[in-house]
Amino acid sequence: MDLRLAVGFIFVWINLSSTAPSALGADAGTSGKVRSAPGIEQHHPKDWRFSMPKGEPIKGRAVFEKFECYDCHEVRGESFPYPSSEAGPELSQMGSLHPLEFFTESIINPSAVAGKKDRTPNGKSRMSEDHIEKMSLRELIDLPSYIASRKPPMTANFVKGIGKIVALVPEAQEIVIDHGTIKDFMDAMTMGYKVSSAAVLKGLRSGDRVEFTLDTAQRVITKIDKLQK
User: Which residues, at least 6 apart from 92, have a Cβ–Cβ distance to it below 8 Å?
Assistant: First the structure.
């Protein structure tokens, strides 16, 4: 090999060797850990969140029957047997209230989202977890899609409820109310609602006992009257 060519190869090899740690983002003479280049996201995108794939509601209904979910949950408008005395939340009202992932979590880990009245004295959900060992992944995808697709039968345009204010968020025109059963519309629960205008919240504070009027189509509270404690 020509001497000048050989020297050229050696020079290039030395040059690359001396710049390699810098190119890899490692500190020369240290452990050699690779640093991320600025602006590059690792492992998962920023603001990533798990999204449940949409299943088939018709198949989900069959799963509901297979695991006899009707033993604890009424679904208005369906022909399932009536629930036992320890019934959980009625489900036809739920579809428009929560995202699909909420129903999935309710199935996988009932204690994570159960309401106060649906918990045992030790704080756990009264819902059995026997299905977790038996349900296939396909069934777990289809069942919450069935629940999310439910809509309550026709109801009045406006209904009234009574409860206690848990929190107020005037800047977002929102209120959280722990309310009792709203007949033929919704079970007792603690729920966040939008109000039709900020004026609806005027003069109210957390802890107030109130009667409220709810627009059932928009799920917006249009009027709130403070009650005597």
Answer: 74, 75, 76, 77, 78, 150, 151, 152, 153
